[in-house]
Amino acid sequence: MRFNCVARLDKLSRKIAIKLEAKLIDHGFVKDQDDPQLVIVIGGDGTFLLAVHEYMDKLDDLCFIGIHTGTLGFFTDYTDQEFDSFVDDLLHRQAKEISYQLLKVTYDDHCYYALNEMRVENVSRTQKIDVYVNGEDFERFSGTGLCICTQLGSTAFNRSVHGAVIQEGLPLLEMSEISGIHNRYYRSLGSSIVMKDDAKIQFEADSFDKALLCIDYMTYPLDGVKKINIELSKKHVRMLRYREVGYFKRLKSLF
Ligand code: NAP
Ligand code: MN
């Protein structure tokens, strides 16, 4: 089995990565950074995002599994205290595979994929965004911006803007406002809205100048852009699961 470890830069995570690599190589695993079949993520949910983006072009050919150095995460099933049972499961047990759909964001000739969310944010001026869903005119938003997240991303930025947390297994998209203005001149829904997994959303503006497109932890300037398309993609992230960690146990460990 070809594998690679992606570890957070802190001491503990790096130490675990070194120990794990040695152990797996001992058991016949082969380290292959470019073409792994298994990517082991050591760190937090943020490290998981990094690893997924690092292997974005190879998602069909590999699986992820994670060790969390800290508390349980949404992408990670083992804590650093459970190192031995992690190795034991990996070497001896049959895993279940679960997969998560990525968001696809396209405009002009750009195409990006997000695991957590996409956001359009403009901190320099009031951003107006005309929102269309499946070709239907839905609303004109005014404010800092809009966030569209996946089920998995519902506990990330979405939660910071009071979007609903979505239980695992529900295929959908959620759109939330970021500092929307609601007064006698500006009117938009205000609350978060959950949409079906086949929703095709379009953001249009006279100008997105000075706004940023945020894709998970990355940002891209939107100067000159007029139209952005958002939908769930056909791309999936595959994860190995050796044991059932209840969704509400994970959720509880978040706060
Ligand atoms: P980061 O430090 O990697 O992540 C920020 C925090 O968000 C970390 O505590 C991270 O958990 C947590 N997180 C990431 N994905 C999550 C998920 N799906 N469910 C629950 N918690 C999650 O920061 P970054 O490098 O800028 O990464 C950007 C990501 O951070 C974005 O996708 C965004 O959703 C998320 N985030 C941003 C805000 C905000 O700006 N207000 C708030 C919450 C989350 P770990 O400590 O386990 O890595
Ligand atoms: Mn982090």
Topology:
Blueprint: E1 2-7, H1 11-26, E2 30-31, E3 38-43, H2 45-54, E4 63-68, E5 78-79, H3 83-92, E6 96-107, E7 110-114, E8 117-121, E9 127-133, E10 136-149, H4 157-160, E11 172-180, E12 193-196, E13 201-204, E14 212-215, E15 218-221, E16 227-241, H5 247-252
Parallel strand pairs: 1-2, 1-3, 3-4, 4-5
Antiparallel strand pairs: 6-7, 6-16, 8-10, 8-14, 9-10, 9-13, 10-11, 11-12, 13-16, 14-15
The structure holds NADP nicotinamide-adenine-dinucleotide phosphate and manganese (II) ion.
Helical percentage = 10-25%
The averaged pLDDT comes out at 95
- Helix count? 5
- Say how many strands there are: 16
Uncertain regions spanning at least 5 consecutive residues: none
Structure description:
This protein is of the alpha+beta class and 255 residues long. Helices cover 18% and strands 41% of the residues. The strands form 2 sheets. Strands 6, 7, 8, 9, 10, 11, 12, 13, 14, 15 and 16 form an 11-stranded antiparallel sheet that branches. A 5-stranded parallel sheet has the order 2-1-3-4-5, with helices on both faces. Helix 2 (45-54) links the parallel strand 3 and strand 4. It binds NADP nicotinamide-adenine-dinucleotide phosphate and manganese (II) ion (MN). The site of manganese (II) ion (MN) has 2 residues, from loops.
Give a brief description:
18% of the residues lie in helices and 41% in strands.
Throw out a few tags for this protein.
5-stranded parallel β-sheet; binds manganese (II) ion; 11-stranded antiparallel β-sheet; 255 residues; 18% helix; binds NADP nicotinamide-adenine-dinucleotide phosphate; 41% strand; single chain; 16 strands; alpha+beta
